[in-house]
Design brief:
By secondary structure, this protein is α+β, with helices and mostly antiparallel strands. Helix content is about 25%, strand content about 25%. It contains five helices and five strands, in the order E-H-H-H-E-E-E-E-H-H. A five-stranded antiparallel beta sheet has the order 1-5-2-3-4. The longest helix has 18 residues. The structure holds adenosine-5'-diphosphate, riboflavin (RBF) and magnesium ion. The site of riboflavin has 22 residues, from helix 1, strand 3, strand 4 and helix 4.
Amino acid sequence: MTSFPLRMRSQVVRGFGRGSRELGIPTANLCREDIGEEFFDGLETGIYYGWAGIEGTTKVYKAAVSIGYNPTYENKTKTCEPHLIADPSEECRNKSSCGETQMEDFYGATLRLSIISKIRPELPFESVEKLITAIKNDIKVTEDKLSGDDEVAAAEKDWCRSKK
Ligand code: ADP
Ligand code: RBF
Ligand code: MG
């Protein structure tokens, strides 16, 4: 069994490009080899929330994270993909096609992710619209669950901010 918080560090790699283009929910795809193959394979599939930071920058974002096979699309390989949620005061917060966070690309950057807890299992949806509705709700849950201040949050945000 995995215990939280779950920290990982990885380069951001390319996926199918579907997150932004088809859903309006860009996800930074992490790399199995960087995370550690055994650790990665042991991750329980599901939808999670946590904190994320891009090394070399100072901002820390809330993140809604998908780990698994995207059953709506029946992927053959497992992915770990956080969607970074900008603060509502930031201009990029509502820029995506479905009104979520769309930032400049950061492919090749090193991302730090600290997963705090699970939201739900990943599910096969019968339409893209229903998948988008579910993800938008996950984003709300993430923002809500991470709205308070506590010691774990402070420590994980610090870790996400630290440089290599
Ligand atoms: P891919 O299939 O290559 O992962 P996506 O359509 O999911 O493509 O887009 C992901 C890329 O978009 C990320 O790697 C990152 O460079 C960029 N990006 C922009 N905004 C965000 C965001 N809010 N969260 C995650 N990635 C983002
Ligand atoms: N894909 C699914 O097939 N089922 C899901 O329940 C699901 N939930 C997601 C929740 C969040 C917060 C995010 C960011 C992604 C989710 N995805 C899910 C993954 C989505 O299909 C994937 O990011 C895109 O297909 C682009 O790779
Ligand atoms: Mg992606």
